[in-house]
């Protein structure tokens, strides 16, 4: 079962991917707003975790596009962001998001919400095995380990 | 004279208390009017004319053996009286004067040229005179008096000081001729009214001449020497004393002499000696009085001069010793006339060097000061900070105040300029402004930096914590004991750092975000805060006692933060007993004071001054924290225009008090 992560921060993507893997879920990445919709259409994830601040268009735009496209409209979206004003929760929910989780230190809350949307009993396939080591390689798309100076590995 | 002096009674006497006083003053004013005197003179002239008409000698000479006033003389006197009464009607006055002066002048010419123009008996035949004298011709005294009065009236048309004095001198001459005649008749001295071989001045003529002279003097009672006679000055008093003496001394003395000789009291030689002696004595006394009066005047003048010099000296001392100010006086057309001594210290020019220069002399741009002076004159004050040139060529900033100098009646006498060298002040002010701007800018940048830094620091920190968590979850069992401990410490440190970043963000928000002021119900707000803090409250078993709190005017979110920090502190810094917190409010003028009292560990008196500073932690070992919470509180209260203080509670804990505005 695939969960799509739309976030420009690589570390967030990697850590989320590992959390998902611990839960037995597969991660799909999109790093900016323009990639989000094509990848979602192609991969048909069971859940989307969306950063609200993205390069190439803000999260609200992505959210609106996802909810308007017939193929993706039914996919639940959790908006996951650093912003913590009470207003943003109302904003994203009114745009069709299914939940808002604030990026915080411990990601317990996000894990709970993921399980809420994807209860283990609904999973079609058995739990994938836990990866024995973190090898920095997500399933899709290929991992681009970049440093702050833009060197790509 | 007395008549003239009361033509215009001073207003205070006219207003004075009793009815009689006021009526008296009005009566005097009316009677004393020049017109009254002129009418009296005209009346006498008319009576004389009647005397000629009815051939009643007593009417034209007042006594049968006295000389009579001739018809021509009576006519001329009447014309002068008309000129005085109608002096406002220029044509009538001029015609009357022309007629009278023609009569007078013709008569004199007859005497001088020794001709008879056959005008003397034009109206009536004169049989009053003994043979040899010119029948019907007015005396030379009367004719001169008539001409003098006519000239006086004519000259007085011009109001210049010179013509007024000339007019009055002529009138005084006429008056002297008239009074001498009157005395001559009173004393029976022919010489005073007639000369041998000429017709004498008649008694009615002498009377009319005196009356008309007084009338003409009264006509100009406020001008020239007449003004000097009025008033309470020394000269006026002196003149009032000496003038009657001058007019009366000789006639009286002559009268006395004649009477004494006539009655056989003494021989004429003794009488002449006594007359000479008396005249000398009286004149001597007059000189003595005059000298005394001038002496006292001189003394007073000297005293005044001395006082003035002292005052001037004192003034100069004062003015020259004012360190940074100079004073200057400018003439109405803007030329420097007086400078105070401080000028040299400020401009490098001595006051003497600047006298006579133009007001714009020290200006850097060389433009004139006309506009500035005009403004000072118009508005009563011109004030500006201007650049001026010193003698050595350097420029300074001078604060100038120019005010116009006017006398009591509003006549413009010039300008007073007060200047102060403000170069240093201006430099300091400018420097201060630059520093303030720099500081404001750097403050803003610092706040910006704090916000951006704390914001952007969060993401990598979260990543670090995330990876640590991941390693811990996945590989805890593979790690040796000490490595596990290091990992745990690293995780703890990152948690602490996140806390600090969060607090920094809060502080920066409390400083940056504009206040959204509204009415905030504090009782409600405390309830909300307690709900947020519920986990900590329950864990510590804390009890709260909240009084009825008033609404205040402030930013809801920031006040929530304030209460949250204070209440969280009250729970966090607890002693061995479960926390007991009371919250109360007291009205202090336009503000409310709120007290949050706890039974916690309190604060050492020595640490109180540092309490509200950033990163200041008093109990670092026992209680974790960033040391920003109270700094945030202080910042919030500060931005609301209040004040936050700490006091020890009697029970050993702390009382945090803050004030907030009650109204908008």
Strand content bin of chain A: 15-25%
Which structural class matches the secondary elements of chain B?
alpha+beta
Give the amount of beta strand of chain B, in percent: 5-15%
Main sheet attributes: strand count, strand direction, barrel closure of chain B: 5 strands, antiparallel
Number of strands of chain A: 5
Topology readout:
The complex is a heterodimer of chains A (153) and B (664).
Chain A: E1 2-6, H1 10-23, E2 26-30, H2 33-43, E3 47-51, H3 59-68, E4 77-81, H4 86-94, E5 99-102, H5 108-117
Parallel strand pairs in A: 1-2, 1-3, 3-4, 4-5
Helix pairs in contact in A: 2-3
Chain B: H1 2-5, H2 11-15, H3 19-32, H4 34-54, H5 57-61, H6 71-85, H7 90-113, H8 140-155, H9 161-187, H10 203-219, H11 224-229, H12 234-262, H13 268-320, E1 325-330, E2 336-339, H14 342-347, H15 351-354, H16 370-379, E3 382-389, E4 395-406, E5 412-421, H17 423-475, H18 481-512, E6 517-521, H19 522-532, H20 534-540, E7 543-546, E8 551-555, H21 556-572, E9 580-588, E10 591-597, H22 629-639, E11 644-648, E12 654-661
Parallel strand pairs in B: 7-9
Antiparallel strand pairs in B: 1-2, 1-5, 3-4, 4-5, 6-8, 9-10, 10-12, 11-12
Helix pairs in contact in B: 4-6, 4-10, 6-7, 6-8, 6-10, 7-8, 8-9, 8-10, 9-10, 9-12, 12-13, 17-18, 18-22, 19-21, 21-22
